[in-house]
Every structure is written in structure tokens, then in C-alpha cells.
Amino acid sequence: MSVYNAVVLRSIKRNMSRVKNKKLPTIAGHKLLYECNLRCKMCPFWRRPDSKLLSMEQEIAMMEKLKEGGVSYLGFEGGEPLLRNDTPEILKESHKRFHTSMVTNGWRLEKKINEIHTSLDFLFVSIDGSKEVHDTMRGMQGSFEHAVRGINASKHMVPVAMSSTITRENIDSIGDILDLGDKLEVPINFQIEYDYSTAEKISPEKEKLLGALNMLIDRKKADGPIMNTVQYFEAIRDSWFYGYKWECRPWLTINIDPEGRVVTPCYIINEYSGSDYVWNIDIKKMWNTFDWEPYRTCNKCALSCYLEPSLFKWTRPAMVKSRIIDATIDYIKFSASKRNF
Ligand code: SF4
Ligand code: SF4
């Protein structure tokens, strides 16, 4: 419990500075690189050349800035983070300061998990369907098998979830994804595909998406292996199909690109293009002078790293139960099972 207490106390302390500074990021995402060994149809990032990546000193300088800016949760992604040899060291530094997570395609996970598991609080492994569906969407034969082997090697060391992107190519296979979650005994975090201008446009057809959202709401209510809240799926359905918008609060999440630049106002607007170097700015000042107003009603994407925090309010008991109480219970259960394994 000591690690969990440290995370909770750190979050409370950093949240207290929110009283004085009206807008601060809670969650940070950082792409360690754009390079990837897979070729996912819907992904713009493997198509971008990497220029110079951050040194260890720059990664630490970035983390110190994020900490000062109020961030409690830092998630690493790419590209494929496990292609960098210094990723274990970067995760270790992050874990001293933040609740630390990583999303990986799983290809190198089985080999690497022993080096990284003590630095991770949560791990996401991308799986989009059955072997055939997944390998086709991800553009690489063998990617499903590696991801499953990676999950099996990791799930007793660190809490793991599958990360699944719903596209027109797998929308009919959501049942298979849920069955796989049950079989592997890990929950699934779903995203709805966003059509980037520089990737293949395979976002789901609207008619099918409505049925899929309703099915996911029912399965979540019936205790299916789903990490997203019911409110996440309901917000997308109510906005995109019935015109009731959610309030997007993109300032709760800050993203840093592989060169150390801050991506504003969010991941999707400007298609993840960074501007100021994070070590040159005062996050508190920037966040409270930036004009966030136009984005409150945006509702253009359903990225869970923006939508879930946007929906969370202490006055919404269902969200508090799902995000705080259930997550704490899951953490306690995982710690107990780890001791017994
Ligand atoms: S695994 Fe991730 S980073 Fe790599 S190509 Fe696929 S979506 Fe992009
Ligand atoms: S809904 Fe709009 S403002 Fe909010 S994260 Fe998505 S693109 Fe950005």
C-alpha cells in the first residue's frame, strides 16, 4: 500500500495548488519517439521521421517541469517506447515522481518486462481484435501473438489492460475483443479511431458506431472487462448522435512530443504538433493565460485521455465510484494477488 499512499498523497498535494492556479494539467503524455516496428493503418506517427530524441538529462528536466506544473500521472507512448534502449531508465526516473504508465504494441514486452515492471504503475498493450483482424490493422504478421505473449508475461507483475481502437475494420469484432479480455483476465480500454490527415481513414461508420456504443454500455453495466466508464460511452453517444455536448477540458492533460515540445491545445487539434520546449515555459502561467474557451464545446474526438478526465467531477457519484473507489479496490486486489503469485 505504500506506493499507492505515495501516489494519493502526491496527487492531493499537487491538486492543492489547483486552488490558487485555476487551470493545471493533472495527466501528462509523452511520446518517447515516433519510430515504430509496426505499420498500423490508422496511425500517423510511424510515418513521421524522428529528429533528435531527448537525452536522459532532458527527460529529467521535462519531468521536473511537469511536476512543478501540477502533473500527477505520466504516461509514456510512441511510436514504440520499447525500441529505445534507455526506456527502463526513463521509466525509473518517472516512477520517482509520478504515477507511471506506458502503452506498447507488446512486440518486445516479453523480453523487457523484467527490466521495467518495478517502474510501472500501469501498462497498456494494444490489441484490436482476433489474430487476423489485429495483424491486418497493425500491418505486421505476428503482432497479435507477440502482444498476447507480452500480456501473459506481464500481468502478474504489473496491472495490465488491453488498449483497443475501434475502427470500421474491427467494429464487428468487439465481442471477440471482450472475449479475449475475459480469457486473458485483463480489462480493455477502448478508443474510437480519429481520422488523421496523414493516415488511412478507417474510423467506424456512424450507423454501426451507435450500436457498438450501446452494446459497450450494456456490457460495462453487466460487469464486462471494460476499463472505460459508462459515462465515457454515453457522452460520445449523446453528443455525436443526439447533440448533447460534453464539456471538453483539454487543459487537464498535457502532451510533450519526442523533442520536448508542448502540444497545445490537445493531441488532435493541429494533429499533435508541438510548439514551445517544455523546459522554457512556466506551465502554470501558460495554462492560465491560454485561451481554452473555444475548445470547451469541441467534441471532435473521443480520446479517453481527454474525455474521461473532462467528465470527472467530485459531484458525480458514478464517476467517483468508477474512477476512484473501483480503481482502488482493483489496486488492492492486484497487490494481494501479486503477493500470492
Ligand atoms: S503500434 Fe502504435 S505507434 Fe506503432 S504504428 Fe501502431 S499505433 Fe502507431
Ligand atoms: S474534443 Fe476537441 S478539444 Fe477536446 S481533446 Fe478532442 S479535439 Fe481536443
UniProtKB/TrEMBL annotation:
Cited SUPFAM superfamilies: Radical SAM enzymes
PROSITE patterns, per database record: RADICAL_SAM
Pfam families: DUF3463, Radical_SAM
Presence of keyword S-adenosyl-L-methionine: yes
One GO molecular-function entry: iron-sulfur cluster binding
Record key words, sorted: Iron, Iron-sulfur, Metal-binding, S-adenosyl-L-methionine
Single Gene Ontology BP annotation: heme biosynthetic process
Segments forming domain Radical SAM core: 22-226
Signal sequence, renumbered to the chain: none
Gene3D superfamilies with a match to the protein in the record: Aldolase class I
InterPro entries (UniProt xref): Aldolase_TIM (IPR013785), DUF3463 (IPR022563), Radical_SAM_PqqE_MftC-like (IPR050377), rSAM (IPR007197), rSAM_PTO1314 (IPR023863), rSAM_sf (IPR058240)
Protein name per the record: Radical SAM core domain-containing protein
Organism field: Ferroplasma acidarmanus Fer1
Taxonomic classification: Archaea, Methanobacteriati, Thermoplasmatota, Thermoplasmata, Thermoplasmatales
